[in-house]
Amino acid sequence: MSEPVVHITNLNLWYRQKAVLQDLNWTINPSENWLVYGASGSGKTTLAKAIAGLVRANGSITLNFKPEAAQPPVVHYVANWYQFKDLEGQSNFYYQQRYNKQAVEVTATVRAELESYGKKHGLNFGIAERIMSDLGFAALIDSTLIQLSSGEHKKLQLVKALWLNPQLLILDQPYNGLDTRSRENLNTLLDELAEQGMQLILIANDLEIPACIDRLAEIREGKLVEISASDRMTDFFTEETVPPVPAFLREHPAAAASELVVKMIGINVSYGEKQVLRNVDWEVRSGEKWLLQGHNGSGKSTLLSLICGDHPQAYSNNFYLFGNKRGSGESIWEIKARIGLISPELHWYFDPSATVWQSIASGFYDSSGLFCEPGSTKHAQADELVSYFGLEEYKNVLMTELPLGKQRLALLARTIIKNPELLILDEPCQGLDLHQTRYFNMLVDELCKNGTTLIYVGHFDALVPSCIEKRILLENGAVKSIETMTEAVETADNFENFEILTKP
Questions:
Q1: pLDDT digit string (tens) for 179-214?
Q2: CATH code for the structural domain at 6-236
């Protein structure tokens, strides 16, 4: 009988005097491909890193590779979080820096990054080109790393991992930031590599998984429990309830001077010869709830950066915000005072030295970290949100020391703390487990009852708040359609999943 590829016995790991993994046992036999899921902070990422030798844990982990296999005899772990450095070795970027020409000039291109990676591992660049094409990433080969969106950074991670084709590949939340088509193509590639002999551990809370996955497990109370597909579906559709939001968030946001919150007329954005937005016309009225969608690279992030005051080309376009034409004397801080934002990029570049409480309170000032002492009222409101999001035990802990899902909850609290007129939620549930995602979207529904204007970015196969009324769909930087949600469901590419996942 063949030896197990992975054999784990009595694995224990503690964090802040709390058991994360406790006497965990797991055997992965040849040809098995596993999906592991669980609540945020349950230990999924810790377990993956322990198998890859990236963290120390008490217990036994034995790996057995096939010396005769075509794949390299290694475990390759792909983190949920992508980090890169510029050409000077710096990684302390700030949020608006991706639109800074100087930052672009000192950051490597995708081509240079892949050529360096291929040379290091002795890989054939032609294989990488095929993977890039399959993932819809080939057109970005000469883009710099700092210009990539969250979904595009995820694709770069995946290109490297699939190109390496290790004997054991561990993917931590690989679908974050990917559009529906890219998820489908990724699953096809994973099935092909599994057929060729690669084994897979997939850490994900998604329902759409590769056909090669034949084992399912959940981490519960520090232990790994094998489950059936039906058990997982039952768990997914467990009903959630949300308590009333804090009283200060039930107040109607300050009234806008104009009924039109956003008005874009023929918006164009280009970087050299590359046009990112093309003749975009869009109006968002006060109190409306919008879903912004489009494939990776369609221009969603650039469109939002114009609204948030982060993109310098807002001044060269015919663009109105809260009734005022951009460039008519308003400061960027006056704009941000009326907007609550969360995005993957904001999370990437957030101050790593801030505690959970400081991070939440910084939402009053639109700063990355807290640099002044809030008054008593603001202090009490920050405390209230710490409690509301169940973060009391982490209140004085550095954000970077939290599981990714709980970091995102803290930033969600930061986003809503000032009860903004306009709430922009760009893939807000990346890193959250299924229950947290459902819970947060129900919270958004409650918040938006007070007249808040909402722009929400998500894909059809993701949970979205039920309050959303309209959809704008971008394709190659242009508006493909603007429609009500009823019309959107009728024309959805993935109608069946959309209907299931948007049930109240």
A1: 888 999 999 999 999 999 999 999 988 778 999 999
A2: 3.40.50.300
